[in-house]
Amino acid sequence: MIIDAHVHLLPERLGAKIRRFFEERGAPGMPYPYAPQAVRQALVAAGVALCWSLPYAHRAGVASGLNRWTAETFAGDPFVVPGATLHPGDDVEAVVGEAIEELRLRVFKLHCSVGAFPADDPRLDPFWERLSETHHPAVVHAGSAHDGTATAAEVEAVDRVARRWPRARIILAHFGAPAVEKTLALLRAHENLYADLCPVVADPVVLSRAAIAGLERRILFGSDLPSVAVTIEESIARVKAWGLDPADEEAVLGGTAAALLENTPGGAAILSLERT
Asked: Are 27 and 202 in contact (CB under 8 A)?
């Protein structure tokens, strides 16, 4: 079962605004439409069985409304695991509590470059403390560049979070690209740290079979639809080209994402429902 652990099914007006952002900065052509149902259809057509939909907040005050839209739009959808976001300028404890207790969202997304904050911003302490208790996975897009890239120094903010909150389940988006070597070192240093394989617009994450040896169960497949110029099929093919043992390949393409969901409160029952 292929689980895409990094997808953005967003309100259509927001999706249009994000697409214009890329186009105005000369990004390569993106083959996927941004309307949420069209993105969903593209994922299904490519053989994806389940996706994590990750909203993200560019400023304080918008996360709660976006989280509610995500929860209501995909309530009961067997294909979509709706996620939540927040900004450190929010009432962090309140937004996280609402997302978990009322909206029952399964995964969180922090977008440091869009929101202009580091992963270890002290205002996020209540967030990391709560996730250390509940084990909801958190996908973190580190860095500050508009093109989505991260430096080794910016990835080190995730290192500090992983050290301080060793029970939090943290997924470093885009493998911290281009700081891939730094990310590999951090994965070997922290058992609670994971990384996903999302391309950065048109640039796939470049990894060798030797580089990921021993880390196969902490790497997640992700496409970053719709804001990507690499097709889902190309991203899946890159994983298959490693020639992993079947169990390890299954873990990368979906097994590890499933396990992270199953470890959250009520996650096993919800995942079982989504599989039917």
From this structure: yes
User: In this predicted model, what pLDDT tens digit does every residue of 189-211 receive, in sequence order?
Assistant: 999 999 999 999 999 999 999 99
Q: Which of 57, 128, 125, 118 is nearest to 86 (CA)?
A: 57
Residues near 65 by beta carbon (within 8 Å), at least 6 away in sequence:
none
| 70-79 pLDDT, tens digit each | 999 999 999 9
φ/ψ (deg, to 5) at 33: -70, 160
Q: Which CATH superfamily is domain 2-275 in?
A: Metal-dependent hydrolases (3.20.20.140)
**Which pLDDT band holds residue 266 (cuts at 50, 70, 90)?**
low
Instruction: Please say whether the beta carbons of 175 and 183 come within 8 A.
Output: yes
- The Cα–Cα gap between 189 and 64 comes to 34
How many angstroms separate the Cα of 132 from the Cα of each of 45, 110, 118, 137? 36, 16, 19, 9
Domain ranges of the chain: 2-275
pTM, to two decimals: 0.94
**pLDDT digit string (tens) for 26-37?**
999 999 999 999
Q: What tokens appear for 12 in the block? A: 């259509």
Tokens for 199, please give them. Answer: 């391309």
Contact indicator for 276, 78 with CB cutoff of 8 Å = yes
